[in-house]
Amino acid sequence: MTELDTPAPAEQFFSEQSRAALADASRKLAERLQAHTDALLAMTGDEDNATLFDHNAALEGVVEDWNDAVFEHTGTTPLLLDDSIEDEDDEEAEPDQVISVVSRFDLRVVDLDVLLEAGRAAQERHPAELDETGDHEPVDTAEQAIYEISREVGEAWFELPGVEMVAGARAYVVPEPPFEPLDADAEDVVTELIAPNGTATHAETWA
User: Fold this and answer.
1) What is the pLDDT of residue 42?
2) Is the distance from CB of 52 to CB of 43 less than 8 angstroms?
């Protein structure tokens, strides 16, 4: 039996009215339970499921009424009906679907001046956050130029000025346990750029 955390004054319960209501609810529960049992015993498995659901629903309603009548008379609830429903909802919740996309592109710089010019122009059109000095990061290396261009237009591996692609690859992986999500705050992000344990469903390569 589950009791209230803070019992109410006794005069609120055990009244003649609550006693009569409980007796009536108990009688209905006994009758409904017997009728429900008789109906189940008579079934052969060939009946429409809707018939069974109707019997179950009728019994559920009488049980809830009886549970309420016990509470009105004693301040206690013998059956934790609400908790059972919440547990069922938790069990039916579907897990989130996760897909990991891992890619790598190897690039050869053939004209650094053209690449740097394009990178500086991209930075002016789409400036990143300022550094500690309040100035933009100078675009004086190939990797900085590629970074600025990619920030503006996304994956620009096939159209980078002054650059040829040596090779590229991309894989789509459905992770399997044990799955370690990518840590975007890792000190060494390079170690995070590997395919997780799982099944590769699609792959693309360029050369």
Assistant:
1) 85
2) yes
